[in-house]
Design brief:
heterodimer, A: six-stranded parallel sheet, 20 strands, binds thiamine diphosphate
Chain lengths: 574, 163
């Protein structure tokens, strides 16, 4: 049944009405020729608020951050040609991390398509490999239904960005407006419920395990399954690890949590992964940064249960024994029910021995660093950040060493607090994502952990922060290097620091001030905590904290590329 | 291993490039690809011949299923099926070669569908191996031009692919 039936509207009016129908609060965008009619309609109403970014990459990242921090759809609006191409990095970032987003792009008029018109690019063609789906709408009568489809596709199944490309003339054509209440596509029917026979097999395997391990990824966060996961892990008494994308899915301060796993995961998490006999993988995809070399991983025999919404994520890099395709929280509910109904308990004796082994691994204290240093250690800054914010801030990050330290040292107890580009690894993500996160959570404490190289990739958004009064705290771990690049060059390229030194850095304090914010330089360990406390007291101000950190610090543990997950380099080994 | 994959997909602009883009982006082989609308004009049927290990082919079918416009996917080579390809081949056929050429076409159940002073154009259908065999049988110098449609496939008996 159609909810709304009115006189004829223009395409531009229809788009805005659709956004209103979807309950869209914010659109992150940037105007231009092809979207002028859309902007005109935005101007005439005040339900959907527009956030004017300073670069379309920022629009896509902000919409993405908004979505990650809220579980709502992030919406972004860009013009044709350079507007779309600027947004592509942001779209690909969202795609790699399965973030529900709708991107509306302007296109040259239908009659001009294919004629190399001014600001024409094949938006659908360029974005095809980095969207869940995309549409070019050539007929205004299909516009409302297409936008409905876009929101439906973005949010169901494995989520992802969907682009709707709208030629300028279509925004002026008129038709009657119907916003379909529901949509169904014969070619798209994501599974929700896990196969009950498979769930039974999984329970059996878990109960028989001697050295069990639970490994969870972004899927748990995206599907809001933290409560179920926590219940399951506690009920079983098994150890749990999260991927970079999955942090916050299980409370990091809990004793059953082994920390993050993977290339820069903890010793205990990686060792337990390699040595477990039953592995329960949930909403995770065994990617190269997580399990390293799959052949090495396969050397230890183990049974694997894998729960995921996306069948193509199962048995892609690692063969699994019990695949369960379904919506994670629903499958976990079924698992928990079955466990509670049965009389059998996990093998307590075996489990105790396994925990003894794990505690021994924990004893390596793999994240230790020099606490007596006269130079600021980046790890120390993150530890203090965690303390000062009570562990409850929304933390976004850019990409590099600072990202890994934030992931290792900020203990996320709740989901949707840790926002980073895990799949694509996009420098420049942190600041615009923080804007979106803050818009989604007015009043929340939002920190952006970044490096002096990353922050310069979307620096212009400081201006957006000023305009919309977004009191983000920028934690710049300034080591004057593209630290992660430098680390690889130190380990694998004979200390030849080719182009990884950040020369001619701006004075970040003055720069922040130039944008109308507060800037603070911190160069002594003793000043770290007071500077953080002062910054976070300033509820209405953006504070740019420029921490001059140890240039030579490296991220440990580290699994070198191509190595097995248990073949870690530890700090003390160098 | 050679696999023949059948796909039902929405007959929409761009659907073909989503499929071919998937193959190139993920490094899967395409030996041949054919596509045309079905009796229901809103739907197309595509046949792709590919090679890959069982793991790769499993990924191919999963990735195809993931495309929004793909309605159904089946690996025909998993069970009994029929496969046909059409070839048009233009060969040298001067007066003294004509009889031989005609006989050869007959053996392969081909038909001569166009004749000029010194050429024959032969139409031949069959599975890929038969078409390959015909080409092999001819003297390479005799072949002027070949055009092949790529394989189309269908399951045997009650094995059907439809919505
Ligand atoms: C857009 C983009 N370009 C290049 C890279 C490769 N890269 C990964 S980490 C890194 C260095 C980041 O340096 P910085 O932001 O200072 O952080 P640090 O590692 O020093 O903490 C680079 C260049 C990337 N991830 N993204």
């Amino acid at each position: 049944m159609d909810r709304v039936r009115t006189a004829e509207l223009t395409g531009a009016e229809i788009v805005i009405r659709c956004l209103q129908e979807e309950g869209v609060e914010y659109v992150f965008g940037y105007p231009g020729g092809a979207v002028l009619y859309l902007y005109d309609e935005l101007f005439k109403q005040d339900k959907v608020k527009h956030v004017l970014v300073r670069h379309e990459q920022g629009a896509a990242h902000a919409a993405d951050g908004y979505s990650r921090a809220s579980n709502k759809v992030g919406v972004c609006l860009v013009t044709s040609g350079p507007g779309v191409t600027n947004a592509v990095t942001g779209i690909a970032t969202a795609y790699m991390d399965s973030i529900p987003m709708v991107i509306i792009s302007g296109q040259v008029p239908t009659a001009a398509i294919g004629l190399d018109a001014f600001q024409e690019v094949d938006a659908v063609g360029i974005t095809r490999p980095c969207v869940k789906h995309n549409f070019l709408v050539k007929d205004v009568r299909l516009l409302a239904a297409t936008i409905k489809k876009a929101f439906y596709l973005a949010t169901t199944g494995r989520p992802g960005p969907v682009l709707v490309d709208i030629p300028k003339d279509v925004t002026t054509h008129k038709t009657e407006f119907h916003y379909p209440e529901e949509i169904s596509l014969r070619s798209y029917n994501p599974v929700r419920k896990g196969h009950s026979g498979q769930v039974k097999k999984a329970v059996q395997l878990l109960l028989e395990a001697k050295r069990p391990m639970i490994y969870t990824g972004g899927g748990v966060v995206l599907s809001n399954a933290s409560a179920q996961l926590t219940a399951l892990v506690r009920q079983l008494g098994f150890p749990c690890t999260n991927t970079l994308m999955g942090l916050g899915g299980y409370p990091a301060t809990d004793k059953q949590f082994l920390g993050m796993l993977g290339m820069h995961g903890t010793y205990e998490a990686n060792m337990a992964m390699q040595n477990c006999d039953v592995l329960l993988a949930i909403g995770a995809r065994f990617d190269d940064r997580v399990i390293g070399n799959p052949q090495h991983f396969a050397q230890n025999p183990r049974k694997i249960v894998h729960i995921d919404i996306d069948p193509s994520s199962i048995s892609k890099r690692v063969k699994v024994d019990v695949p369960i395709v379904g919506h994670v929280p629903d499958v976990l509910d079924d698992l928990i029910k079955l466990l509670r109904a049965g009389a059998q308990q996990p093998d307590a004796q075996a489990l105790a021995a396994w925990w003894t082994q794990i505690d021994e691994w924990r004893g390596r204290d793999c994240l230790k660093y020099d606490r007596t240093s006269k130079i600021i250690k980046p790890q120390f800054v993150i530890e203090k950040l965690w303390e000062v914010t009570g562990g409850d801030a929304i933390v976004t990050s850019d990409v590099g060493q600072h990202q890994m330290w934030a992931a290792q040292f900020y203990k996320f107890d709740k989901p949707r607090r840790w926002i980073n580009s895990g799949g694509l690894g996009t420098m420049g993500f942190g600041l615009p994502a923080a804007m979106g996160a803050r818009m989604a959570n007015p009043g929340a404490t939002v920190a952006c952990v970044t490096g002096e190289s990353s922050i310069q990739m979307c620096l212009q958004e400081l201006s957006t922060c000023k305009q919309y009064r977004l009191p983000i705290k920028i934690i710049n771990l300034n080591n004057r290097y593209m630290g992660m690049v430098r680390q690889w060059q130190e380990f694998f390229h004979g200390n030849r620091y080719s182009e990884s030194y950040m020369d001619a850095l701006p004075d970040f304090v003055k720069l922040a001030e130039g944008y109308g914010h507060r800037g603070v330089l911190v160069d002594k360990p003793a000043d770290v905590e007071p500077a953080l406390r002062d910054a976070f007291k300033r509820k209405d101000e953006l504070v740019f904290l420029d921490f001059l950190t140890d240039q030579t610090e490296n991220v440990f543990p580290m699994v070198p590329g191509g190595k097995g997950i248990s073949e870690m380099i530890l700090a003390e080994e160098l | 291993m050679r696999h023949i994959i059948s796909i039902l997909l929405e007959n929409e602009a761009g659907a073909l490039s989503r499929v071919s883009g998937l193959f190139s982006a993920r490094g899967y082989n395409i030996e041949s690809l054919t596509v045309a609308p079905t009796e229901d004009a809103s739907m197309s049927r595509m046949t792709i011949v590919t090679t890959g290990s069982e793991d790769v082919v499993e990924q191919i079918t999963k990735q195809l299923n993931k495309l929004i416009e793909v309605v159904k996917v089946v690996d025909l080579s998993e069970a009994e099926h029929i496969e046909r390809e059409l070839m048009l081949i233009k060969v040298r056929a001067s007066v003294k070669e004509r009889e031989d050429m005609k006989r050869m076409a007959d053996i392969f159940r081909g038909r001569v569908i166009d004749v000029s002073d010194n050429t024959y154009t032969i139409e031949l259908t069959g599975d890929c191996r038969k078409l390959d065999a015909f080409i092999q049988t001819l003297d390479a110098g005799a072949i002027i031009e070949t055009v092949r449609t790529g394989a189309s496939g269908i399951g045997r008996g009650n094995r059907v692919l439809r919505v």
